[in-house]
Amino acid sequence: MQRTPSPPAANAPSRTVAVRAPARDRIDAHHHVWALARGDYGWLTPALAPIHRDFTLDDLKPIRTAAGVAATVLVQAAPTVAETEFLLATARASGGVVRGVVGWVDLAAADAIPVLKRLARDPLLKSVRPMLQDLADPNWLLRADVGRALAALPRLNLRFDALVRPRELPALVTMLKQQPELAVVVNHGGKPAIARGEFDAWADAMAAVAAHPRVRCKLSGLVTEASPAWTIDELAPYVEHLLACFGPQRLLWGSDWPVVELAGGYLRWNAATVALLAARTADERAAILGGNARRFYGLD
Length: 300
Hints:
Layout: E1 27-31, H1 57-67, E2 71-75, H2 81-92, E3 98-103, H3 112-119, E4 125-128, H4 144-152, E5 159-162, H5 169-178, E6 184-186, H6 200-210, E7 215-219, H7 232-246, E8 251-253, H8 266-276, H9 282-297
Parallel strand pairs: 1-2, 2-3, 3-4, 4-5, 5-6, 6-7, 7-8
Helix pairs in contact: 1-8, 5-6, 6-7
């Protein structure tokens, strides 16, 4: 029987408390930009009308400024090396706003390691992210050819962003045992099915992932997994579980902009984060809202 996520404690502080880290310390550890004319965003169709247009750093600037975010990590949205090169060029032209890029390489390809070596010459490349949630095989991470490429990442000072749903979490746990040197960050809290109230299997699998001390997790992408009229109280049990598993020193806040525009927008998610972290100490909030991303990705 599935247990019900625990509601916030009766004596929890008000969820309208305003808490902000200093702007110079705020880092958005997960956002995108895209140009539809590039033609490699297969998932981005007209059905996603609010985000089916170009999004640039100029579009992001007033929003992140309003949220007090000074610097960002730019993340791939297309499964092509060409997009990774586009993101690196965007980062180089950002005037220091984009401090790191999470790119894409086909880790199963015969030339994966040479391609990784070439891209890693750019110090702005910090991590790679296969789009695991879109692959047919939930055990793709356990392929021998993929394993060889994963083993090369630490030697190239690269990390691994795990874009997974609960279905891929068991394979991720196995991969973590096989790749003891690899620094990993789980994207979007492992994408629990919040709208359906699913909790147990996700919670147990995330606890198993978090048992590996080198693994981090992004506090991002949860609102697009929640119901359309999501509330802070709906998100709270999932956020509390992530805090219980990873602790405030292993969580990285990200907006998932512009995808977040499908579920209330950047500033609403930022305000929800402020409320959800209100009971944490100033040092803990500062870590989640910037310090952890700076350390994990080596942004300085």
